[in-house]
Amino acid sequence: MMNKILGFSAMMLAAVNAGDTADWKKRSVYQVLTDRFARGDGSTSACSNLSNYCGGNYAGLTNHLDYIKGMGFDAIWISPIVDNIDGGYHGYWARNWEGVNTNFGSADDLKNFVNAAHAKGIWVMVDVVANHVGPVGTNYSQIYPFNSSDHYHGNCDINWNDQGSVENCRLAGLPDLNQSNGFVRQYLKDWVKGIVNTYGFDGIRIDTIPEVPKDFWGEYGAASGVFQMGECFNGDPAYVGPYQQSLTALFNYPMFYTISDVFGAHKSMTAIANRYDQESGKFSDIDALGVFVDNHDNARFLNRYSGNRVGLKQAQVFALTSRGIPFTYYGTEQYYAGGNDPQNRESLWQDMNTGSDFYKLIATVNAQRKASAIWENQPVQRYKDDTFYAYSRGEFLVALTNSGNTQQRQVSYSPFAEGTTVCNIFYPTTDCQVVNNGVNVYLLNGESKIYVPQSKLSAEVLRLAESAPDVFLQ
Questions:
Q1: Which one of 37, 425, 427, 444 is separated from 196 by 20 to 30 angstroms, measured CA to CA?
Q2: C-alpha to C-alpha distances, 220 to 230, 244, 408, 466, nearest whole angstrom
Q3: Are 209 and 232 within 8 A, CB to CB?
């Protein structure tokens, strides 16, 4: 049906490096809005209107891959690539499914970016939309190839209390594609297969999962041939979980709300264990879920919780080390605090400070996460109470608090053999101890600690320690 995909001959296929779910569990993902990360010309002037294009593009991403790699990220999630209705800086307003969004660059620019990322060991996850098109009312002639009314469901607004309405009515007034139409269904599957093969994407992030019937997602995910991370914006594991029967993974929105409650609103840390208990049996693979603190659809943590930087650091350490695949929203490392869309979609080019204490904190956790291969070990709860939570993943002990006050606990149930010298990765040369009836954990003013055997400290962690003192205490 499609002898050309987004301007490339279908024979010009890029090699796909994508691994399976087990391989993606090893990755730490950095989310960008393509339009807001970096400009190819290197300019850093402010964006005058966050509701429209600001100038970020694939060339800018390519030029600043080392900024991302420097934090230890080995995967990037980018915005949808398809040609959009005017004003669609975010990528979710598809117009011509055969074209690329030229505001981000050409098809060659996109291919060059993916190749450059792969050369640095970084995988690329592309955002895709199969639920709707751009805001054209009922003038479908503006959309290609879905230019007929029978390609869409009726013109109704979603009633979120009725699943039939969720699947058959319009999200925010956007024309709702009818996946039961044979042409629409087949084209969408061919399209996603085509862009993966053409550009060499390693995974897909799928928008608006609950707005389309589950059986379609099973076919769509299989057609893509790569790992899928679906967005089901709902806090109920019983509602979100069944979608994992059709896709490899989903964002753990239920845990997102728990992270906010615990580290933002200072609710009991026992809620973390309770959330895992609630999710057990609801998801087929909790460890494949996407864990996150911020994203482009929610006001940032620092906006919601009055600039609580200590809480943000606590939450980020948890997200990078807990069950699942960690996703970090661009700008978190620079303490961005934007409110609701579009204020949470700030430009980053003026703030690419690799000396930021938070930048280096994230780099430190990612470095030891990889060195300790924590994904090979299920988390084991070691201690919990209202203001303290500790868990291990092999010889990797995470100690967290949701308080800004100093906490001290003896974690006698530890993963380390008695007599082992263990060190806190944030201060690996000065904060070490010999295990004696477990680990004596002292958290000053809300800091977090991660202990590993001194003999297994990452060389990158030691290097970072020399240049990043007091990453938690600033």
A1: 37
A2: 12, 13, 50, 48
A3: yes
**Amino acid making up residue 414:** S
Question: Helix or strand or coil: residue 150?
Answer: helix
Residue 469 has a pLDDT of 55
Instruction: Specify burial of residue 30 (Cβ count, 10 A radius: 0-12, 13-18, 19+).
Output: buried
Sheet holding 432-434, edge to edge: 380-385, 388-392, 397-400, 449-453, 421-424, 432-434
Largest Cα span, the chain: 73
Provide the pLDDT for residue 10: 34
Q: How far apart are CA 366 and CA 368, in angstroms?
A: 6
Planar angle of CA 53, 29, 87, nearest 5 degrees? 15
Burial label, 41 (beta-carbon count in 10 A; 0-12, 13-18, 19+): exposed
Radius of gyration of the chain (CA): 22
Here the tokens at position 294 are 């911020």
Cβ 291 vs Cβ 319: under 8 Å: yes
Statement: residue 4 has pLDDT above 60? no
- Tokens representing residue 458 in the block: 């990452």
Cα angle for residues 398, 316, 299 (degrees, 5° grid): 155
Please identify every residue annotated as catalytic: 207, 231
Determine the Cα–Cα distance for residues 2 and 371; give it in Å rounded to an integer.
Answer: 44
Q: Report the alpha-carbon distance of residue 422 to residue 338 in Å, rounded.
A: 38
Tokens representing 311 are: 């809480």
Q: Are 172 and 233 in contact (CB under 8 A)?
A: no
* DSSP codes of every residue in 453-474: EGGG--HHHHHHHHH-TTTTT-
For the chain, give the number of residues: 474
Token code pair at residue 71: 């934090």
| Residues 30/290, Cβ–Cβ less than 8 Å | no
Query: Which residues make beta-bridge pairs with 443?
Result: 407
**The dihedral sign for the CA sequence 453, 457, 462, 465:** negative
Structure token digits, residue 7: 């301007």
Query: Distance between CA 229 and CA 214 in Å, rounded?
Result: 14
**Ramachandran angles phi, psi of 256, nearest 5°:** -55, -45
Q: How far apart are CA 151 and CA 288, in angstroms?
A: 34
d(CA 290, CA 171): 23
Block residue for tokens 């993966």: 196
Distance of CA 362 to the CA centre of its chain: 14
- Structure confidence by residue, pLDDT tens digits, 20-52: 999 999 999 999 999 999 999 999 999 999 999
